[in-house]
UniProtKB/TrEMBL annotation:
Entries under Pfam families matching the protein: Cellulase (PF00150)
Source organism of this protein record: Calocera viscosa (strain TUFC12733)
Segments passing through the bilayer: none
Superkingdom, natural source: Eukaryota
Protein name: cellulase
Single annotated GO MF: cellulase activity
Keywords: Glycosidase, Hydrolase, Signal
Catalysed transformations (reactions): Endohydrolysis of (1->4)-beta-D-glucosidic linkages in cellulose, lichenin and cereal beta-D-glucans
């Protein structure tokens, strides 16, 4: 394997910092998140995503991998030290992805909760949340292509105004740990819905600052999700929309607020549904065409999901593309940078 001149241009590796986000496209490699439910309880077994998938997808043009994990795996005690045994396993996936010259979203998948209790709203304190991020950031501070996904899909927050201080606390901890040039993803509420971002949490998150770059928010990206089924849950195989109207509204809002940027870090549709091939393809093409306001996308999902999962992008027998990947995702990926 080697990095090509095209790769250096696409990934911005010639620069000392990644001041302009590259166009990103790829997939979630799930498994470390299997143990956590939407109420933040960590009760089930997790599974390590297969390492072969990173070179497999990168050879087809992927340059972004989101690797979600349960908070309790990282710090089994709330506010405590990192579990170095688990981290060594998790890092195998991160390094396998980085080895393909891709970017990696390190994503905490706890829905703004720890065992049912909401961060800064009767549950974990901002300091306990920030402690975990301080340790993860210190571990990855030398990897400029690591992106910190502060929290997956906050939802049903009693007081939306109490979420931005938790986001700011995590950002401050990441920067204080020495990770000063990596991008950070700021999630909204309503399962970080792209439809809700411009009117619900987005206006509050506009006030978040980056201590590493005073007066600039270039390294802070809005984190949005939007599925194509009828209730935007990602739990049905049928697709009823291409989401371009929703994303157009988001882009208009981003432009109106100083040219801010967002990333679609989860989206997906039925693995074998031809309507989804069309709708997802149109959605991802919209994201690609609206760079740099939409930095890119990571589709849901491959990793430890088998091919029977309705939204699975996992290759069959490790060699054959899932139909949804072949017809909708792969045509909208950045140019291959890994050979």
């Amino acid at each position: 394997m080697k990095i090509t001149a095209v790769a250096a241009t696409v990934l911005g590796l010639a620069a000392s910092t990644l001041a302009t986000p590259p166009r990103l496209g790829g997939v979630n490699t799930a498994g470390y998140d299997f143990s956590v439910s939407t109420d933040g309880y960590d009760t089930l077994p997790y599974a390590q995503p297969p390492l072969y998938q990173y070179p497999y997808f990168s050879l087809e043009g992927a340059n972004l991998y989101r690797i979600p994990f349960a908070w309790q795996l990282a710090t089994p005690t709330l506010g405590g030290a990192l579990n170095t045994t688990w981290l060594a396993e998790y890092d195998q996936n991160v390094q396998a992805a980085l080895a393909t010259y891709a970017f990696v979203i390190v994503d905490v998948h706890n829905y703004a909760r720890w065992n049912g209790e909401i961060i800064n709203q009767g549950g974990p304190t901002i300091e306990q949340f920030a402690s975990m991020w301080s340790q993860m950031a210190a571990y990855y501070k030398s990897d400029e292509r690591v992106i910190f996904g502060i929290m997956n899909e906050p939802h049903d927050l009693p007081d939306d105004t109490l979420w931005p201080p938790a986001v700011q606390g995590a950002i401050n901890a990441i920067r204080a740990a020495g990770a000063n040039t990596q991008y950070i993803l700021m999630p909204g509420s309503n399962y970080t819905s792209a439809a809700a971002m411009p009117t619900v949490m987005g206006p509050l998150l506009l006030n978040i600052t980056d201590p590493a770059t005073p007066g600039s928010t270039e390294y802070l990206l809005f984190d949005v999700h939007q599925y194509l089924d009828y209730d935007n849950s990602g739990t049905h195989s049928a697709c009823v929309t291409n989401n371009t109207e929703i994303l157009s509204t988001l882009v208009t809002w981003l432009k109106a607020n100083g040219g801010r940027q967002a990333i679609l870090s989860e989206t997906g549709g039925g693995r074998n549904d031809s309507t989804c091939y069309t709708n997802l393809g149109e959605e991802l093409a919209f994201v690609k065409d609206n760079y740099p306001y939409m930095v890119g996308f990571s589709t849901w999902a491959a990793g430890a999901f088998d091919t029977t999962y309705i939204l699975s992008l996992t290759p069959t027998n490790e060699t054959v593309d899932a139909p949804l990947w072949e017809y909708a995702v792969r045509p909208n990926l950045p140019a291959p940078t890994y050979t």
